[in-house]
Amino acid sequence: MRIYDIIMKKRNGFPNTREELDSLIMGFVEGIVPDYQMAAWLMAVYFNHLNAEERFHLTEIMIESGDRIDLSSIKGRKIDKHSTGGVGDKVTLVVGPIVAAAGLVFAKLSGRGLGHTGGTIDKLESIPGFVTSLDIEQFKRQAERIGIALAGQTAQVAVADKKLYALRDLTATVDEISLIASSIMSKKLAVDSDGILLDVKIGTGAFMKDLDGAKTLARAMIDLGRKNGRATKAVISDMNQPLGVSVGNSLEVVEAIDTLKGRGPQDFSSLCRIIAGQMLVAGGMKSEADALRTVDRLILSGEALRKFDEFVYAQGGPEGFSASYAVHFKEAEIVEEVRTSVSGYVQSVDAESIGLICMRLGAGRERKEDVIDPSVGIRILKRIGDRVEKDEVIAVIYANDKRNADNEAKKLVDSFVISEQKTSPPPIVYEVI
């Protein structure tokens, strides 16, 4: 069949068949279909979208384009998690040890950060000695032995998605819900699991800016998960301000440890509790109330924190890391307080702006080849709805370049909108689907 006809069919608003999608996608992966034809099809999808059947077929083809990670030999229920990304999102570092301590197997492939969003792999690699480049057999053995393993995404999983995403990024077709859903779920479904928890974020620091769009994306991904036999749930959570207090790799690891000790920031602790509870339900626990009680017990008893330490040590990090991280983490040379020039109430905190400031400080990447500085970042001390007085400290910058820190401090002040009108803080979770 002619690729021209496949493109024209989608351009005219008609669905593509499984055979047509297979010819198009695999032809692109094999170098038979050129970039310009693939780009034309992507733009046709951007305007005409994919129906549920097309999404299912596209996801299936992308899974089949690479390796599958078979965890069926590992006893117990396997649970996976995905976040659509945000600023200060270190949830995986907390919920992974919790669900593993509860008896589930948490085996997850994670990504690196790019732009204003952070990546779990970058946070873990801020821990001295921590190895994320596990091969498939190492990944499986560790998951079986201690119930938790996290590794960087292998180049051989969902090969078609990697090539497609690179072209989407160049052709302004990234933000189409069917393509987002298929991209995410092709990677999740390539790893064997019994359940998947999706953390779909909305707000200024998230990919999805509004609740309706987030719900549509969540339902599309849930549909793909369930059609593939996975118990799939989604939490719609807020990203209108950074999550928790800390943004930056080693700073976020410390905040995750504090949360596992039961003394993390309220918003972050609350979200971790809800997500971990939903993961336990997706993993087979009968009621949400029982799941939440289990989460509370594992934190109070210290079992979740011990599982975190076991996990860090298993992947090359220091033994007993949660008690000794201050010795191992290099501190930033410059610690600069950022103060407000007015009194009032915090109306908004621009999460995307703060993520970009962190990136420019060295905590993230503008380009894939950029090198991360694990010691730099920001602590946000005031949140939406808080009262502030003139000259009060609203944030702290951690940097290793004085001029850079001074420049970004000015931008950080502008990330806060303060007025005399009191504003209620947004909910941390909007809905569980």
UniProtKB/TrEMBL annotation:
Which residues are in the Pyrimidine nucleoside phosphorylase C-terminal domain?
345-419
Question: What PROSITE patterns is this protein classified in?
Answer: THYMID_PHOSPHORYLASE (PS00647)
Q: Does the keyword NADP apply?
A: no
The record's InterPro entries line, in alphabetical order, gives: Glycosyl_Trfase_fam3, Glycosyl_Trfase_fam3_N_dom, Glycosyl_Trfase_fam3_N_dom_sf, Nuc_phospho_transferase, PYNP-like_C_sf, PYNP_C, Pyrmidine_PPas_bac/euk, Pyrmidine_PPase_CS
Q: Keywords assigned by UniProt? A: Glycosyltransferase, Transferase
Q: Which domain of life is it from?
A: Bacteria
Instruction: Quote one Gene Ontology molecular function term.
Output: 1,4-alpha-oligoglucan phosphorylase activity
Listed under GO cellular component are:
cytosol
Its BP terms in the Gene Ontology are: pyrimidine nucleobase metabolic process; pyrimidine nucleoside metabolic process
Q: Which family does it belong to?
A: Belongs to the thymidine/pyrimidine-nucleoside phosphorylase family.
**UniProt subunit comment:** Homodimer.
| The protein, known as | Pyrimidine-nucleoside phosphorylase
Species of origin? Mesotoga prima MesG1.Ag.4.2
| Lineage of producing organism | Bacteria, Thermotogati, Thermotogota, Thermotogae, Kosmotogales
